């Protein structure tokens, strides 16, 4: 990526990687920011002026005095920060022409920029720091990168992270080159905004508009640029006014250089729930092709002038299957016709060279089945692979798909409303899972578009930043690993002193909530399940609570040290999610202990019931604090105490029901004690090669991934375990992460052999929607029997890889009666 650059130009690491190219203390050739004027060209793209303005404000917040900002050709200062796009900024173009600014292969590069110091760049100027972008976003990213590396978090507005105060700021004199990004289109999907973003925008942030409108979207666009993202799928639920119902939104996106798309269910930039007025039955391309095509035509016509990504294909009005077409073969034929006709509109109203217009086909839910049945998607269209809504990518491109010029992408979830259970509240997907899954997608060339469902944005900040940092620089994040990334996030946000301790809190928080998400504590999925019937005994539940208590102890220690100006940010980014998840567990397990113990130990049971009730009140108070007190009331309405509260359905969180204090008989069996008597051997305790250790994933703190997804034929790598088992017979199970086979195969395979015996192949069927899948995503593990039974004593177990990408969390030995050798 650095071909053609002068040797003096360094490949730069991004701000979160902290390589210290900006410092508070000067060095002989460093460029001092203080006193420099920010210059940009009036003819540059509008986003350049917007980013330059934000840079002025950011530097002002750090240094105490904002620099002068101007488009004048004769600066008033002796030094300047020149921000501009190649071909749009005469000063920068002149420096390049004269060989004074080395930009190498920057011209024509995608979203890239160079930051360099130039002496005497123009009459009257002694020195300048030049931020030269290859295109409009490249330049804007350069300005935001300078802010971020100097000490302004991308979350400065969205999570109230105060810019670090600096006595001075110096930029190292070496030229630095950033970009191109690992992934071409990178962005977020605002979804399920009903319980946070929409009420907050409507009532608190923009009551005059009364909805998520230009004022809110402008903040979202700015956030995206600060995170070096470029794409938005806007809010699309019934509660929100459709994005394009107000033309000001798309015009504003264009000013900010943001590429607009629409969700998997909304072809051609429409928002069906708000815009299709003819009823769900008429949204049928078999029965009403003219009506539907006109509807799409209207948007292609009105928005064809903007930079957009067109979603192709068709689903139902909202998150449901397409109406019309009949059986799967009929639907496939209909979809192919739809795609052809949609491309006809793109050719007519957007660009006659249709293949140059970004288009995506997102194979979400039932659409993946139609795709798998043989759907033909034009080669220049990007195939967007979905996860299963819980963070596990369902399929990735095979060799043939990887050769398509349109390439591939991923639609991923950090938040989800749907079956078997939603997770809308605290966004606890572990960073290690995001790194593993998105890394695997990148390795298999899914690099055209990454979009992540971030729910209401808050409190999904860490996951969002991780996803987008990876999309910008995948290897940089992978080098750090989950724990390194958590520490980098903590350091960037709260400074170096507490970074390690905060990272340890985040790691523990993710591990505990991966075992069971705070939104899934009811252990309920599917019809007929009893609420509050966890498979844990009271003692096991208490052991889990003790781990949460220890975590809260550490949280309190760090909370006390957070400087006053960062307390809002601390609450929003760390304290609320960690504490609320811990409290949700306490409330649940105390209530369950009451239901189990009331017959046997009534006094203790009543104490537990009282504690469940007071914990419920604590959650309410904590959430009230978020909404009413934090940042002076800025976030009123943003946080729901229960996800989707008030309207429970089979896949929404069941609201907490206080234990019935007058009960005298247990409602639940005293002690189900699933899992007792097992011998669990953590996967990462093995010797052997050819598997990869993933820290931060699985129950024991790490897991082992089989093989290399890029080289699927290389299998057979072995992990060896020396296990000592008590007397008796033991059935051997394996715990896998509920990942998917790479290319749509129906099962995951690995092999196990004991004491040198012939290996047995374990086959774990993987089908979204079945019971094993639902159990797997809510438990964060897939327990699969091997069929092997061994006798107690010293045993040598060998696990051999068969399918690449299988992730082993543990070997589990289950008592199986007396040993019959
Ligand atoms: O997460 C998804 O992609 C879908 O579930 C959404 O499209 C849908 O709006 C969902 O929130 C349910 O209403």
TrEMBL record:
Family annotation (SUPFAM superfamilies): beta-N-acetylhexosaminidase-like domain
Keywords per UniProt: Hydrolase, Signal
A Pfam family assignment: GH115_C
GO biological process: carbohydrate metabolic process
GO MF assignments: hydrolase activity
Gylcosyl hydrolase 115 C-terminal domain mapped to chain residues: 674-817
Signal peptide: 1-17
PANTHER family: GYLCOSYL HYDROLASE 115 C-TERMINAL DOMAIN-CONTAINING PROTEIN (PTHR37842:SF2), PTHR37842
Name of the protein: Gylcosyl hydrolase 115 C-terminal domain-containing protein
Organism: Caulobacter flavus
């Amino acid at each position: 990526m650095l071909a053609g650059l002068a040797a003096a130009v360094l490949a730069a690491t991004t701000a979160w990687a902290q390589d210290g190219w900006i410092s508070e203390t000067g060095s002989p050739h460093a460029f001092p920011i203080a006193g420099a004027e920010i210059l940009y060209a009036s003819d540059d793209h509008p986003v350049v002026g917007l980013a330059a303005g934000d840079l002025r404000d950011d530097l002002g917040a750090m240094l105490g005095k904002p620099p002068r900002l101007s488009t004048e050709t004769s600066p008033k200062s002796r030094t300047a920060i020149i921000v501009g796009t190649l071909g749009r900024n005469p000063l920068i173009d002149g420096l390049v022409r004269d060989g004074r600014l080395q930009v190498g292969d920057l011209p024509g590069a995608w979203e890239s920029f160079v930051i360099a110091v130039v002496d005497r760049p123009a009459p009257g100027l002694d020195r300048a720091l030049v931020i030269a972008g290859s295109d409009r976003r490249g330049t804007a990213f350069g300005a935001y990168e300078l802010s971020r590396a100097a000490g302004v978090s991308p979350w400065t507005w969205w999570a109230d992270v105060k810019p670090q105060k600096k006595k001075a700021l110096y930029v190292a004199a070496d030229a630095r080159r950033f970009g191109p990004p690992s992934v071409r289109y990178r962005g977020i999907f605002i979804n399920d905004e009903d319980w946070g973003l929409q009420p907050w925008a409507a009532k608190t942030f923009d009551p005059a508009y009364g909805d998520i409108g230009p004022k809110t979207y402008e903040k979202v666009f700015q956030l995206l640029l600060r995170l070096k993202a470029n794409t938005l799928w806007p809010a699309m639920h019934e509660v929100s006014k459709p994005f394009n119902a107000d033309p000001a939104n798309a015009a504003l996106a264009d000013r900010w250089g943001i590429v607009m798309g629409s969700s998997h269910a909304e072809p051609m930039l429409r928002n069906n729930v708000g815009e299709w007025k003819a009823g769900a039955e008429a949204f049928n391309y078999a029965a009403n092709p003219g009506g539907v095509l006109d509807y799409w035509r209207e948007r292609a016509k009105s928005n064809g002038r903007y930079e957009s990504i067109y979603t192709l294909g068709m689903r139902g009005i909202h998150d449901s299957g397409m109406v019309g077409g009949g059986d799967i073969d009929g639907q496939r034929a209909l979809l192919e016709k739809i795609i052809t006709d949609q491309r006809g509109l793109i050719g007519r109203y957007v660009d006659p060279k249709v293949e140059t217009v970004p288009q995506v086909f997102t194979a979400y839910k039932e659409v993946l089945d139609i795709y798998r049945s043989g759907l033909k998607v034009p080669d220049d269209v990007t195939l967007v692979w979905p996860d299963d809504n819980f963070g596990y990518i369902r399929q990735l491109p095979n060799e043939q798909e990887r050769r398509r010029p349109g390439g591939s992408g991923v639609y991923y979830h950090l938040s989800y409303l749907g079956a078997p259970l939603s997770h809308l509240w605290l966004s606890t997907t572990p960073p290690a899972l995001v790194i593993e899954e998105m890394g695997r997608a990148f390795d298999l060339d899914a690099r055209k578009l990454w979009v992540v469902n971030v729910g209401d944005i808050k409190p999904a900040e860490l996951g969002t930043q991780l996803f987008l940092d990876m999309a910008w620089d995948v290897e940089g994040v992978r080098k750090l690993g989950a724990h390194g990334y958590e520490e980098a996030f903590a350091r960037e946000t709260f400074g170096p002193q507490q970074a390690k301790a905060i990272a340890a809190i985040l790691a523990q928080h993710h591990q505990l909530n991966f075992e069971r998400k705070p939104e899934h504590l009811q252990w309920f999925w599917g019809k007929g399940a009893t609420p509050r019937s966890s498979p844990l005994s009271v003692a096991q539940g208490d052991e889990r609570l003790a781990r949460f208590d220890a975590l809260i102890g550490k949280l309190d220690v760090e909370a006390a040290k957070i400087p006053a100006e960062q307390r809002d940010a601390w609450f929003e980014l760390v304290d609320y999610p960690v504490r609320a998840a811990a409290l949700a567990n306490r409330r649940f397990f105390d209530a369950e202990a009451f239901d189990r113990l009331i017959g046997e130990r009534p006094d203790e049971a009543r104490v537990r019931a009282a504690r469940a009730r007071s914990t419920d009140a604590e959650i309410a108070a904590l959430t009230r604090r978020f909404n009413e007190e934090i940042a002076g009331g800025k976030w009123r309405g943003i946080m729901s105490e229960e996800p989707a509260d008030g309207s429970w359905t089979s896949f929404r969180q069941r609201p907490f029901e206080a234990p019935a204090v007058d009960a005298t008989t247990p409602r639940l069996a005293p002690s189900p004690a699933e899992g007792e008597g097992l011998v669990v051997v953590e996967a990462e305790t093995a010797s052997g090669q050819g598997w990869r250790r993933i820290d931060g994933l699985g129950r024991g703190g790490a897991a082992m991934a089989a093989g290399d997804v890029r080289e699927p034929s290389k299998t057979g790598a072995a992990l060896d375990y020396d296990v000592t088992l008590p007397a008796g017979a033991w059935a051997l199970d394996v715990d896998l992460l509920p990942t998917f086979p790479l290319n749509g195969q129906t099962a995951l395979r690995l092999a196990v052999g004991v004491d040198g015996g012939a290996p047995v192949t374990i086959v774990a069927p993987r089908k979204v929607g079945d019971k094993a899948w639902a159990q797997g995503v809510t438990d964060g593990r897939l327990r699969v029997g091997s069929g092997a039974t061994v006798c107690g004593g010293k045993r040598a177990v060998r696990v051999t890889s068969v399918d690449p990408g299988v992730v082993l969390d543990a070997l589990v030995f289950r008592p199986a009666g007396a040993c019959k050798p």
